[in-house]
Fumarate hydratase (Falsiroseomonas algicola), 291 residues
Amino acid sequence: MRIAPEAIEEAAKLLYIRALKILPDDIKEGFSQLVSTETDETAQSILATMVENIGVAERTENLLCQDTGIPIFNVEIGRNVELDGWALKQAIRRGTERATREHPLRSSVVHPITRQNEHTSCGAHVPVINLDFVEEERVLRLAMIPKGSGSENGSFLQMLIPADGLAGVKRFVIDAAMKAGGKVCPPTIMGIGIGGTSDLCMHLAKVAATRPLGSRCADEQGAALEVSLADAVNSLGIGPQGLGGDSTAFAVHVEVAATHITMNPVAVNIQCHSARRASATFTPDGVSIGF
């Protein structure tokens, strides 16, 4: 199966706009579950305002949040898919630029030293493009995640040692949740990466933070940790927008990787309540758009 760069470009453009305007169904269901269990009146009012904001944005085809974020594209390539890697990268970049200029969107991407904004949502190494390969035949998935700075600033990494044990992992995650407080626009999805190297660990945390609600860690120990950490985080009383309540997090998601015998890195990456994402799946039958 061969996919033309023009098709990738068009998909990248549409996914960026879609992600910014339409909240995935699992997040809407997450709001419904929080509303049904929240016991604090102020928190209930804040959750209701968030739900109304989502509805207004979608009805008026407006943005869910003014922060268009750092554009991240996760690409999964199946077997027997013919692609020019360089052309793929350039097509994603062109699609991002077109979405920003043609929609138009506010560009949130600047040079880290000069702070110059090219007004394309692009720059050095941005869009971020992550590649992975899957066993499925003749399929390519393009997932777009606009990662806003409010939640991205709630990122933490600690190089634990094996002697810290599971208690050290839990302590670090709870401390991170308390430090983030209301600055990350809760309720959130807390993504936890455990193991690997420092960079892989942080990447896993972001993968975890952007997983759909209701999904579980493939690792048995990781899945058990998701449940206990979610209970602990929601017992902190941080609540929606940090103003108190039971609804600090929709969920805590964990991803794990093998690591070195003398270390155990742990990373936290947080996704705000506007947990935006969109995806396109290319097969021989055409292109399907979803979340």
